[in-house]
Specification:
single chain; 375 residues; 36% helix; 7% strand; GDSL esterase/lipase; glycoprotein; SGNH_plant_lipase-like
Length: 375
């Protein structure tokens, strides 16, 4: 689960939307990390108390919509949940769940997942890497193993089934960069790994196209410098220069921009090789910047609802402290999460997720929008 879950054990807002369905997707298959994990990390974690999934399984996670913790890193629904609702499909079950039907979709995403293989970090002695082997390549392996139960043993049958599905390669890269930053690496050194990370994301996307996917949504990464945890933990490491219009850390946001620019260019090249595939770039950066720069326009608490964590007891400007994080005993959430963007220091509130998902479904935060009939 994002940096915060490594931190945990080492790191808008509109009323309800009514979406019209412009595409008849029969299922959703998704890969990624904690921004769209619907329970895989909690299942992996089991009843253990000293692993990254422990705190997400405790209140007040899930308080807004589900009324209890549900494996999601938020107070309620994630963007993936709103996408499923918009398409008339059920919430995606985690792939590691037992006694579930995956015919209408399955979620392979796991909080803490990286684009680079776990061995890359272990071999270099990075201690913040997840204890679980959950990288993007591993998730693709889970997908391959499940194919007989999803679409039968015939390759043609699978291609026909996948052609009617929406595939999502969710946000990946945040954890890769975070693990390196936590090890004390400079932003420039971390940025040198962007091409390798983008390469893995695009290789996964191309594999899905070759498996029969007609539509693949690929997420960029949010502004790294706008997360409350980043603002507390990395200010000195990055020089501490803040953007005047948002208050976010400039160098870390430049890292996110570099990642997103290279990703869009790589997806454009991939599109030229697979002209019949529909590739959607889901911009995860612009909505958070928009919220931070103009909170009033989005119904947010301008005194702290954009950069300050809703759930936490750390106090201070950003309400984040490693010793008093969301899910820990005695730590509570803000009175009205719908006025906040940041839920726990890294992840977003249901209200923010709703707004982001709407921007991906209808625009302006996706290129092209998921529900658009044009590329």
């Amino acid at each position: 689960m994002k940096l915060i879950l490594f931190f945990l054990q080492i790191f808008l807002l509109l009323p309800s939307f009514s979406f019209s369905i412009l595409a008849n997707y029969t299922s959703i298959f998704s890969f990624g990390d904690s921004y769209i994990d619907t329970g895989n990390l909690v299942i992996l974690n089991g009843g253990l108390t000293a692993t990254p999934g422990a705190l997400i399984a405790k209140p007040p996670y899930g308080m807004t919509f589900f009324g209890r913790p549900n494996g999601r890193a938020s107070d309620g629904r994630l963007a993936i949940d709103f996408i499923a609702e918009a398409l008339g499909l059920p919430f995606l079950p985690p792939s590691l769940a037992s006694n579930q039907s995956f015919r209408q979709g399955v979620n392979f995403a796991v909080a803490g997942a990286t684009a680079l293989d776990r061995a890359f970090f272990v071999d270099k002695g990075f201690t913040a890497v997840s204890p679980f082997n959950i990288s993007l390549s591993v998730q693709l392996g889970w997908f391959d193993a499940l194919k007989p139960s999803l679409c039968g043993s015939s390759p043609q049958e699978c291609k026909e089934h996948f052609a009617e599905a929406l595939f999502i390669v969710g946000e990946l890269g945040w954890n890769d960069y975070g693990i390196m930053l936590l090890a004390g690496k400079s932003v420039d050194e971390v940025g040198s790994h962007v091409p390798e990370i983008i390469g893995n994301i695009c290789a996964a996307t191309e594999k899905l196209i070759e498996e029969g996917a007609n539509t693949v949504v690929v997420f960029g990464i949010p502004p790294f410098g706008c997360a409350a945890a980043s603002l507390v933990l990395f200010a000195n490491q990055t020089g501490g220069e803040h953007e005047p219009d948002t208050g976010c850390l400039k160098d870390l946001n430049l890292l996110s921009k570099q990642h997103n620019l290279q990703l869009r260019r790589a997806l454009a090249r991939l599109k030229r090789r697979h002209t019949c595939a529909r590739l959607v770039y889901a911009d995860f950066y612009s909505p958070i910047i928009d919220f931070a720069a103009a909170p009033d326009r989005h119904g947010l608490d301008a005194t702290g609802g954009t950069l300050r964590a809703c759930c936490g007891s750390g106090g201070g400007r950003y309400n984040f402290d490693l010793a008093a994080q969301c899910g820990m005993p005695g730590v509570s959430a803000c009175a009205d999460p719908s006025k906040y963007v940041d839920w726990d220091g890294v992840h977003f509130t249901e209200a923010a997720n709703r707004r982001i998902a709407d921007g991906w479904l209808r625009g302006p935060y996706a290129h092209p929008p998921i529900l658009s009939t044009k590329d």
